[in-house]
């Protein structure tokens, strides 16, 4: 690896149970993405093809709540592999929309949607199947791993993400400016 | 050689979480391929007992890429419950924001997600095969893509206040009118965007030649097609009537009212996917396979209705075989570019309407009907929101039929076709697996729409013996 490449910040993005809106807001950095390209290397995430989570990530942006077994495992993995973990958006910060199912029993919920007449086995009820099992509740990220930075918003707008990234790339504390610290 | 199962988990550069599994027999031939959608959020259930007024805001959180489609389908279902006449300016504004979303969503699919395969190559270095790799090798194309998406997002932001999840359309209309001083600056975005699409279409037509052997294997099969059209058969994304066409181009449903969708298709459930499998009812699950989205829309309409898009549509006709509708799903890439053209032309036309800044944009009423169906052509295809409410307006039942769901059978069929064409039985290369993934990418499925997950594995492969015992397992990075 060239020295320029090795100095680049290794950034990963992860998409747990969210709507991808937080990733879209990241893409709304638009032409700043081109500048960012000089300083970061995107090493993992839905926009790139590396499938496993690397062990030497500097910074990870995590969208979404923790909703099923695979995501629980992913949360542990990304914490282990990254220096700084950012909970990106309301779902990761406090559960938000995915947590709206928490008032229901997970098994009953699956039956209600996929097998209202009880005619078929719904997906996701146990860990034997080909889709991961639903957790009893959708949890915010900090409920399962320590989180370093919280960026609220549904989604946080591109300005907020840009400001946070600028601080983090310089190794500074993130201080959110006027209007950047809000839910919704 | 023993039978084995290969897993690609997660499929990347698609909008949502899914994995592919396929089985090889003793001769290494692919016998089965499945695309699994691996998360579930339960919108249909937790929306119960909430006021229908909240539904546009909640359901737009189904998907951050097409939130505007959900917001509008939901508002339209709400219009029906109110039973009011929505002010004409509100309809125009809703159309405007929806075309803006088509621009940004199709740009994302084409440039950010698929162009790395199309320009860098299906079998190119996976480390570079992404939008930033494109920035390095084709900076002009990457910049064009970023700019085109930005144009769409900017129009959404100016109208709705936010580029992702604007809280703007409501049952009865929209929350706020378009300010007259904004019209010119929005209009000014269009010419540059049109130039970008023209350039990209030229580039695409040139590059597609290198894919001539691929085309017939990427989901090229006869099927039905479904989409909305204007009452006189033009391309439509916001309203209109439902058309279903068969593989030969015969129209099976001419002008069905969208509210009658339950008579048109049914859904199956499989235990191996959180995404349901809809099919055209009168032909059954086998023969009733249909496709929706850009390709289907261009197939079912008689014309686009704008000059540039009509010219591009005519050229698109070169993919027809024996006068039948275009059957290769690979051509969805070109279909998306044509729809961007159309949307931009419509945006310019709508912005020059003198009534677009009218301030009467919302009608008020209480609950006047207990059921409402809202339908829209989301970027990926026909989207239905169907609500039943009580007399106080609390939701009793919700049925959401999402665009990517309609294509579920077709996506599964496509990856089987690709696996059978490119799998040679002896060696499974990373490039081969990426081809399978591209088979999913051409549909641009938005799986957030039904569900959700993240795959934790690399290209994880498990080789199982005929009795299901694990022979070997390894992960490709
Ligand atoms: S916080 Fe909002 S935008 Fe982000 S994933 Fe959750 S619902 Fe989507």
Any overview of this molecule?
- By secondary structure, chain A is an alpha/beta fold.
- Chain A has helices at 3-7, 21-27, 31-39, 69-81, 90-94, 106-114, 158-169, and strands at 9-15, 40-44, 57-63, 66-68, 82-88, 134-139, 149-151.
- Chain A has a domain at 9-99 and 136-169: NADH:ubiquinone oxidoreductase-like, 20kDa subunit (Rossmann fold, 3-Layer(aba) Sandwich), CATH 3.40.50.
- With 477 residues, chain B is α+β, with helices and mostly antiparallel strands.
- In chain B, 40% of the residues lie in helices and 18% in strands.
- Chain B has 17 helices and 16 strands.
- Chain B has helices at residues 43-46, 55-60, 67-82, 88-120, 131-137, 139-160, 183-187, 189-207, 212-215, 261-264, 284-287, 294-300, 307-316, 332-351, 403-406, 408-422, 430-441, and strands spanning 4-8, 18-24, 30-37, 169-170, 173-174, 224-229, 241-245, 251-256, 265-268, 277-280, 290-291, 371-378, 381-389, 395-401, 459-464, 470-476.
- Chain B is globular.
- The two termini of chain B are 25 Å apart.
- Residues 449-477 of chain B have low confidence and may be disordered.
- Chains A and B meet through helix 2, helix 3, helix 4 and helix 6 of A and strand 3, helix 1, helix 4, helix 5 and helix 6 of B.
- Bound molecules: iron/sulfur cluster (SF4).
- Iron/sulfur cluster sits between chains A (18-19, 21-22, 63-64, 89-91, 96-97, 154-155) and B (61, 64, 164-165).
